[in-house]
Amino acid sequence: MEITLIESRFCTVKEAEARRPKGIGLFNTNNSVNEYNNKILNAYVDRIPSTAKDKYIGCTSKEQEIFVRQKFHKMSFIDTNGLPN
């Protein structure tokens, strides 16, 4: 019964865009989420770019900071709690 209810909500991408052009979507892969987010973000004309500056606290040397930075960039999206590298 639950599966029937969920499946009754399925629609095509075109139908979803018509129903909720800027709404919240449920996707089955992280790649699909990233594609959707990038599409929405790129649609804004008056966007302002923002670049973060990483700050590594607790490193006692430049070599340690380089090691930590390299280790961080190899981590998965899940291991960083959703933060992109």
Note down, in words, how this protein is organized.
By secondary structure, the chain is mostly helical. It is 46% helix and 0% strand. It contains 4 helices and no strands. It has helices at residues 2-7, 13-19, 30-43, 62-73. It starts with a helix and ends in a 12-residue tail after the last helix. GO terms for molecular function: helicase activity. Keywords: ATP-binding, Helicase, Hydrolase, Nucleotide-binding. This is ATP-dependent DNA helicase.
Fraction in helix: 40-55%
User: Helical element count?
Assistant: 4
The strand count comes to 0
**Structural class of the helix and strand makeup?**
mainly alpha
3D shape = elongated
Mean pLDDT: 85
Model regions low in confidence, pLDDT < 50 over at least 5 residues:
none
Described by its quaternary structure, the protein is single chain
Distance separating the two termini? 41 Å
Rg (C-alpha, Å): 19 Å
Order of helices and strands: HHHH
Sheet with the most strands, sense and barrel status: none
Strand content: under 5%
Organism: Trichonephila clavata
Keywords: ATP-binding, Helicase, Hydrolase, Nucleotide-binding
Protein name: ATP-dependent DNA helicase
GO molecular function: helicase activity
